[in-house]
Design goal:
The complex is a heterodimer. Chain A is mostly beta strands. Helix content of chain A is 0%, strand content 56%. Chain A is built from no helices and 11 strands. In chain A, the strands form 2 sheets. In chain A, strands 2, 4, 5, 6, 9, 10 and 11 form a 7-stranded mixed beta sheet that branches. Chain A has a 4-stranded antiparallel beta sheet with strand order 1-3-8-7, with no helix packed on it. Classes of the chains: A mainly beta, B mainly beta. The A-B interface holds A 31, 33, 35, 42-45, 48, 50, 55-56, 89, 91, 93, 95, 99-106, 108 and B 33, 35, 37, 43-47, 50, 52, 91, 95, 97, 100-104, 106-109.
Chain lengths: 112, 116
């Protein structure tokens, strides 16, 4: 049963600290998405990659966020420095060429 | 621009009742995908269905059924004989087809509570 995995599941950190979230997409899927969920904004796309190449990161604050996909089995989302307004659940999703999209369990980030 | 509207913020039903969750979308594309996801209290987003805009046939999967009407830009979801385990937030979403395919535009979600 192929699944998207994300680590860590929960992260509490202090303002100003660096946060790195990791995602392992489903083997064979060619697209990886990062979404953020907050009560105020709902689910919003931050960035996505196809065949490891970044396609769109317009939803991401460029000054503090960065997303990379160093290989086909790992995608990372980094926040440096973190701020309290970054507190949210961050989801990674893995997409197949047929258009289906499966989500990981999410990383719940709390920045104090 | 694409937009998805789920007008029902919260719905409360008693077990075994049927319930329909509404979804209306806006897009200028002639081809697109529509999705429904379930987010139970555990927080995961569970894929339920993907529908291609070419295919207007209704679909049934167990107690779940989906009614896609392109003429009214709606993709409604019905749960028959609801159960307590159906309690969750349900999201409708839309994505493009083609080079920009994949990125989802979500509705705000409908919170469904099924009481025993």
């Amino acid at each position: 049963d192929a699944r998207v995995t994300q680590t860590p599941r929960d992260k509490v950190t202090e303002m100003g600290q660096e946060v790195t979230m990791r995602c392992q997409p489903i083997l064979g899927h060619n697209t990886v998405f990062w979404y953020r969920q907050t009560m105020m904004q709902g689910l919003e796309l931050l960035a996505y990659f196809r065949n490891r190449a970044p396609l769109d990161d317009s939803g991401m604050p460029k000054d503090r966020f960065s997303a990379e996909m160093p290989d086909a089995t790992l995608a990372t989302l980094k926040i440096q420095p973190s701020e309290p307004r970054d507190s949210a659940v961050y989801f990674c999703a893995s997409g197949s060429a047929s258009g289906e999209q499966y989500f990981g369990p999410g990383t719940r980030l709390t920045v104090t | 621009a694409q937009k998805v509207t789920q007008a029902q913020t919260e719905i409360s039903v008693v077990e075994k009742e049927d319930v329909t969750l509404d979804c209306v979308y806006e897009t200028r594309d002639t081809t697109y995908y529509l999705f429904w996801y379930k987010q139970p209290p555990s927080g995961e987003l569970v894929f339920l269905i993907r529908r291609n805009s070419f295919d207007e046939q209704n679909e049934i999967s167990g107690r779940y059924s989906w009614n896609f009407q392109k003429s009214t830009s709606s993709f409604n979801f019905t749960i028959t004989a609801s159960q307590v385990v159906d309690s969750a937030v349900y999201f409708c979403a839309l994505s493009r087809v083609g080079t920009s395919y994949g990125k989802l535009t979500f509705g705000q979600g409908t919170i469904l509570t099924v009481h025993p």
